[in-house]
């Protein structure tokens, strides 16, 4: 995963994820919930294939 401070680094040259593990964990948890629920808004969860079918989402099962 990658994390950038777009205000100070708009060209995304310095990945700051290692220096902000709490923020990285918070965002990873939020993204995982969005994917598992099939949505990022309130409402009934929607069907999606999830990490079992998307190789790029294997980090969700780690």
SSE pattern: H
Cα-to-Cα separation, first versus last residue: 13 Å
Structural class: mainly alpha
Q: C-alpha Rg, in Å?
A: 14 Å
Overall mean pLDDT stands at 81
Number of β-strand runs:
0
Helix percent reads: 25-40%
Number of helices: 1
Number of domains in the coordinates?
Answer: 1
Report the major sheet: none
Shape: elongated
Identify the notable features of this structure and list them briefly.
62 residues, 0% strand, 1 helix
Short overview:
With 62 residues, this protein is mainly alpha-helical. The protein has one helix at residues 21-37. It contains 1 helix and no strands.
Overall description:
With 62 residues, the chain is an all-alpha fold. The chain has one domain (1-39, 53-62). Helices cover 27% and strands 0% of the residues. The mean pLDDT is 81.
List the helices and strands and how they pair.
Layout: H1 21-37
InterPro entries: Alkaline_phosphatase_core_sf
Protein name: Arylsulfatase
